[in-house]
Inverse folding.
């Protein structure tokens, strides 16, 4: 077990399917420089929010029926006219950590390993999956802590995968 990961994460890695361990071992991460904001409004104000947004690029939208949430660059948010409602919430200074790996949709436990690593260092994150790239949205105050934990996770996954390969060769 590596000194930089928790016993819980170490146990989880040993129990993961081979495909998941391989995906973790090959994951590369990048931190996007752009700052993002998370904006939430009551769902009934979604139309007004889209009108105010105009051509601004919205990265993520989630509508749960009660609340409508978007993730937008702070630059685009700052360019908007004053928001139309006092019933909105905004969280500032978030950054995306991009996780690049070959990750088929049937791989089990990848997100669990990522979140266990982050929880081990006290980092909260949002997880957003595209078709072939995954993203974590974290407050910029914890980016270094998050990337350190993730790099330790991926290093340990590579070590375990290499150890399993050496064991097979013998």
């Amino acid at each position: 077990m590596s000194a930089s990961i928790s016993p819980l994460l170490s146990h989880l890695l040993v129990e993961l399917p081979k495909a998941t361990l391989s995906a973790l071992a090959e994951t590369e991460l990048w931190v996007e420089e752009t700052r993002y904001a998370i904006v939430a409004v009551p769902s009934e104000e979604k139309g007004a929010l889209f009108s105010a947004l105009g051509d601004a690029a919205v990265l993520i939208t989630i509508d749960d029926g009660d609340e409508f949430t978007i993730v937008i660059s702070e630059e685009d948010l700052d360019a908007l006219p004053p928001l139309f409602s006092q019933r909105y919430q905004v969280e500032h200074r978030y950054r995306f950590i991009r996780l690049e790996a070959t990750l088929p949709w049937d791989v089990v436990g990848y997100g669990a390993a990522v979140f266990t690593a982050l929880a081990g260092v006290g980092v909260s994150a949002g997880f957003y999956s595209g078709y072939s790239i995954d993203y974590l949205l974290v407050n910029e105050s914890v980016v270094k802590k998050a990337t350190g934990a993730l790099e330790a996770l991926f290093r340990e996954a590579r070590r375990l995968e290499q150890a399993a390969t050496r064991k097979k060769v013998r």
The chain has a mean pLDDT of 90. DSSP finds six helices and seven strands in the chain. The chain has two domains: 7-27+101-169, 36-93. Residues 18 and 161 are 8 Å apart (CA to CA).
